[in-house]
Amino acid sequence: xxxxxxIKELIKLLDQTSSVHExxxxxxxxxxxxxxxxxxxxxxxxxxxAPYAYPFAAAPQPQHNIQPAxxxxxxxxxxxxxxxxxxxxxxxxxxxxxxxxxxxYSAASPDSPSFVSVGDRVHEKSTxxxxxxxxxxxxxxxxxxGEIVSVLAENGQxxxxxxxxxxxxxx
Length: 171
Known about the structure:
Blueprint: H1 4-16, E1 22-27, E2 30-35, H2 39-48, H3 73-77, E3 94-97, E4 102-105, E5 121-122, E6 127-133, E7 136-141, E8 146-151, E9 158-159, E10 164-170
Antiparallel strand pairs: 1-2, 3-10, 4-6, 4-9, 5-8, 6-7, 8-10
């Protein structure tokens, strides 16, 4: 399995070279292909304003037609209760963010327990989830020692580059 840090390094190297436009590596039955976009693909990606810095096609976002439910008059005039959040303490919390666009998986397989749950203690090398991108399963490590305070993504959810996935109270 390719390590996420190795993939990141390969992407940086490919970006820095002017003569190499495509890289394909096969190892232990796993295949990794990275390519630079040509000029027209780069311009199209910029027009689409994709938040991801590398030229991977984003999955189309579903269009939802949701009509607001009728709200009783008393509820409409009452002040909204503040949702429970970690905003006041977020300054001290570490965010574990998605390093790429992909699908978030909380466990190694559907019948396995989650890697971590709220209240679990993690260390720097603890696997917290898997991000599937381009048919590759990338294990994401906590990179900090502490306690999981919140899991911000749901199993099977598409996540964006830089999207917060977990909040950790560092030790």
